[in-house]
Structures are given as structure tokens and as C-alpha cells.
Amino acid sequence: MLGKWFLAEHPPIYRKLISCIIINHGEKKGSEGGTVVDKIKIQGMSCQHCVMSVTKALGTIPGVKNLKVDLVKGEAAFENTQNASAEVIHKAVEDAGYKVAE
Ligand SMILES: [Cu+2]
Fold first, then answer.
1. Which CATH class is domain 4-100?
2. Distance in Å, CA 58 to ligand 1 centroid
3. What is the C-alpha end-to-end distance of the chain, expressed in Å?
4. What are the pLDDT digits (tens) for 50-80?
5. Which of 21, 26, 64, 97 is most buried, taking the most CB atoms under 10 A from its CB?
């Protein structure tokens, strides 16, 4: 992974880019149809109601498709067809009352 120097030397736009890369790092499907599957770790989900809340929150982001929230793994996987930024995704999860694990 990129070292600390990279974060220190580069303006925020690059940092944003980096966090997107980190989010995508977990699982990346081939670019057939240009679709990338994002997988994020979500902390704080404890029941099906939490899954519903997270599903609803992420579902409001434009371009998020085939969303699957896994309670046991504490993960959400979805196609990010409009390249929503990591910031937007984190905010949606946090607004719903949960946290994206770094
Ligand atoms: Cu719950």
C-alpha cells in the first residue's frame, strides 16, 4: 500500500482517490460492462433491522445497484455504477447510524 509520504505530499483530491482505491481493494470484478463491485465493512449492525437501515441508506446513492448487505460478515457489496465517492458512501452509512470500518 501507499506510504504515509504519499498522503502528506498530495492534495485532498488525491486522498479521495486513494480512499476509493482502498474501498475497492477488497473485491474487484473484471471490467465487463464497466461494473466494479465495491465491498465495504460496516460496524454496528446487530440484527435484520440494521441490515434494512444500511440497505436503505446505500440504496439512495445514485448508481448503487445489486446491493447486498451481509449481517454475519458485517459487509455490504454493491455495484457502484456511477462511481459514488468513498465520502458519499461513508456518509450514507454514518447517517444511518453505523460506521464503515477503515
Ligand atoms: Cu439492528
1. alpha beta
2. 16
3. 14
4. 999 999 999 999 999 999 999 999 999 999 9
5. 64
